[in-house]
Amino acid sequence: MTIVTGPAAVSDTAPVNPATPETVSADSLPTVQIDGIVWQQAIIGDVAYAVGQFTNARPAGSAPGTNTVPRSNILAYSLTTGNLIASFATSLNGMAKTIVASPDGSRLYIGGAFSTVNGIARTYVAALNPISGALITSWAPKVNSRVVSIAATNDSVYLGGWFSGVGSVSRTKLAAVTASNATLLPWNPVPAGGDVNAMAVSPDGTKVVVGGSFTTINGSSNPGYGMGAVDTGSGALLPWAANSLIRNGGTKAAILSFSSDATNIYGTGYVFGAGGNIEGTFSANWADGSIKWVQDCHGDTYGVYAGATSVYTVSHAHYCGNIGGFPQTSPNWTFHHALAFSKAATGTVTADPYGYYNYAGTPSPSLLQWYPDLEVGSFSGQSQAAWNVTGNSNYVILGGEFPMINGVAQQGIARFATKSIAPNKQGPMVTGAAANPSVASLASGMVRVSWMANWDKDNQQLSYQLVRDGKTATPIYATTKLSNFWQRDNIGYLDTGLDPGSAHTYQVIATDPFGNTSKSEAVSVTVASTGALSTYGQAVLQDGAGNFWRLGETSGATGIDWAGWADLTLGSGVTRGVSGAINGDTNTATSFNGTSTGTASTQTAIQGPNTFTTEAWFKTTTNSGGKIIGFGDRSTGTSSSYDRQVYMDNTGKIIFGVYTGNTQTVTSAAGLNDGEWHQVVASMGSNGMVLYIDGKRVGARTDVTAGQDYSGFWRVGGDNLSSWPAGPRSDYFNGSIDEVSVYPSALTLPQVQNHFQLSGRSLNLPVAPADNYGKTIFQASPDLYWRLGETSGATAADTSSNANSGTYVSGATMGVLGAITGTNNTAVRFDGSSGLVTEDTLVSNPTVYS
Q: 773 — phi, psi (to 5°)?
């Protein structure tokens, strides 16, 4: 159930690191359109050829049914202009599924379900002149059913499809003929159990890799299950290491496409049920099929193109979190139909949270900053957008059934170009009111301005200017930030030295590397004339709080972050302006109603920290418990991953826990639901977990130094507590919460106690003993230090700074001679049966000195 992040995307049309290769721009260039679907494309020089199921072409910008030119299932267009090439007017009377150019560019091979080409009988497969579009009549293989995949050398043409014979000779779904006159070759590998979808010839011409839904080739399932390499001459099955890991075959899974470069082959697949294990993309070495990397995004991937520097795919990807990419949205998935990845392995796949095959530890590429927006089409009835992708050194082209790209009508065919060719007009995406900053005057003469980073479809680094009172020529603050659509950090600025009572406006301008801008509205504020931060609040900031939500706003649904820029969004079940926890401070608190509406959450996902401290004040009389603060993978609703949490059980105990595959907790004593304000501090770091209540360390363990690995949000007032120890009746806290802070460090005991005392409360703690032995033990900060020097009574005083007293039980004789020479501190003699000391306050894994 873990959602994780890995290596960040670093490549775009203007990468931060000059050594990082660029992607093409996300600008969709004007291109000829079709009225159906494009199944595949091929490129020769400046000409792109598209085949599929369509009857008409029309220019870019023309609405469906206007300015149409007849084109029957095949057309050609200029890569440079996107215009239809009028002289290429080949006509097919049925669907074409595949098109491939011969390596020398002298021919186009097409396959599909057609039976005539330019009115001439030619069933399922044909060769065309790429300039005129004329049928090459001397090349006429006699396959007996449709062809769906073709791979070609200058000497041989390899066919894959539904056929069972070529002429009178049996051939099961695979066959090869000569390029010169279509003479059938002896090549006869036999796939069984499914269909052939894709083929690729190795650069050295020695092997053909075949992919599909078959489960064996030549009787073998490894290699041969969904994929296998066969000798180009004999058709014998060759060793292919990729098939030991990549297993897509049968009725519910298949390999769908291949692309190739000089050293590697790239493949894609789909899975919908049993029989397969990859929906993303893999890269394997041509020499032996050894896996270079696996792109374990979820969502069937239909096509792949290996460009010079990046790998482009078309799919309906909805989760790439296993390789550091975007998370899966819930309850409705968000689909991304065109993506780009690095050609190099940059990290490793992390554990899958959704029950898919676990590729954890396998090398992975990086997801790159290229997110053109394709709208789903309706022609196939399969609710998809693009079905294929290819390109050259300057262009990447997509084909499919999409009706729009980036919000502009463009049906079936799309072109994207490198930045030297493209207009580079895809700018920051969030504009107007949606980009507005949060502006508040927290104290006299001061205004706090915060906003969420913008994002861009093809640039990760954006620059920001903060403008006061419309003076764009002299912004008061400027910065840069890396972002993408799912990781948009908070940015902020504290504007000081302003005249109390004066009015100002603030506007944020975001700019990409090409000068495209997005502007927020101007937001107004009046500078406060009174107000100052309490000494308690000052100590929180001085001790390095990364977030500090005072929850003292008198109204509204925002909890301002006084230390950072991650404001809380509060639900409707909260009441503002209730009496606060800090004595002498007029700043108020917020009460939470104990339901799912009584919560607050940050809105920008961060990686769950392994070194941190959370601090909060709470007051309640509930006997239903609830979460005070925690970390969850959702900012609203119920998280599916949740830990780093502090919650109360039904008896008023406070439990601090993290999840490491098992729940790991430390616990306080009961009774903290007494209607009084209490301080809770929970920290984790290299020394383990520690829980403090009211300035005293009440629980600690050294064996847990890391929590669950996922990206999420800080939640206040409630979230999921399912399956956690001493689970309360309610996941949601019914009571008041005040002064919540999160630190990127583990606070020390003196810091915790200083905060407690600065709240206006007394912390009655022992002083260090006068003798050297006692002083040394005291300064070691033990969890407990019972000197056992009492001469009467039933209390064993704790001389540690935690003041966790113990209780003497019968059988203990006090006042006997002590062990430490030079002091009058006595000892206790136990009778060996019932004499003992019990601890009044529960401490997990205590260190005890006595």
A: -60, -50
